[in-house]
Please model this.
Amino acid sequence: MTTVESILTSIKKLLGITEDYEHFDGELMIHINSVFAVLTQLGVGPNAGFVIADKRFVWKDFLNDDKTLEFVKSFVYLKVRLLFDPPQSSAVIEAINRQASEYEWRILVAADLDGNKYIE
Model:
């Protein structure tokens, strides 16, 4: 059974923010949309780009049930975390950047293997 996952809610949850606390939603959506713009340039997501405007937008809207791109969710979280709530420790920042770079490489490989992963 597949559950419908709100993009905004899932990123908030990973950041330790409860779904009902909406004070940072605007800022988070700006960062999430920036990461989606990066993903579009990497060849993933809808051809015309993708943005969220509230918690009704779900991962399926962006990934179209493509199981080979599940790590995109972690990539979005890591990039948003660095923009929204960067760690104090430079070692932790470096570790997050390394993981995000690995995901970025894997995204490029996945997009290249499929010709690209754009969704029409």
Notes: The mean pLDDT is 91. The first helix runs from residue 7 to 14.
